[in-house]
Every structure is written in C-alpha cells, then in structure tokens.
Amino acid sequence: MLAAEMMTNALKYMGPDAEGRRHIGVALRKEKAAEEETIVVEVSNSIRPGSAVDRPEGLGRRLIEVLDQQLGGRLETSVTDDRHTISV
C-alpha cells in the first residue's frame, strides 16, 4: 500500500522539468547498517521548477505518513529544482 500511494502521488504531482521532460523513478533496495537490515522504497518524479510539491495536509501524504509509522520507518523528503523524492 505504501509503494502504491507513493506512486499515485508521484503521478498526480508530476510536471515537466526545466527541459520539458516528465519522469518517475522507483527504487527498492536493501541496506545494512551494523546488525540491522532495512528495505528502502524511494519514488522520485519531475516537477515544475518552483512548484510547492510537499503538501503535508494532502490525503495522500497523510496516508504515506500513517503507513510509514505503522512500519516503524523513517520518512524522508527532498526537493531540488526539478525533482521531488520521497523515501521510507
């Protein structure tokens, strides 16, 4: 459900980057730190330069936060000029 909601939000808020291209990236990887292994789900999408994409009041974002809490994850968001990335 978490990955599906992350993809849904990426599609909903995707826009052309500075060069007019649209893209979505999805990564699933396993990381190991000390004795702990974690699974990371990361979704990134192109955004219009200057867009306000991090909407904490949106239903999709709230669902992502609740699912993250249920899994005991750590939600991270980053925004560059033309890319929005969210990972758990």
What does this structure look like?
The chain has 88 residues and is α+β, with helices and mostly antiparallel strands. Helices cover 28% and strands 34% of the residues. The chain has 2 helices and 4 strands, in the order αββαββ. It has helices spanning 2-13, 59-71, and strands spanning 24-33, 36-46, 76-79, 83-87. A 4-stranded antiparallel β-sheet has the order 1-2-4-3, with helices on one face. A hairpin with a 2-residue loop joins strand 1 and strand 2. Helix 1 runs antiparallel to helix 2. The radius of gyration is 13 Å and the shape is globular. The two termini are 13 Å apart. The mean pLDDT is 85.
Brief descriptors of the model:
88 residues, alpha+beta, 2 helices
Kindly summarize this structure in a few lines.
The protein is of the alpha+beta class.
Oligomerization state of this entry?
Answer: single chain
* Low-pLDDT residue spans: none
The amount of beta strand, in percent, is 25-35%
CA-atom Rg in angstroms:
13 Å
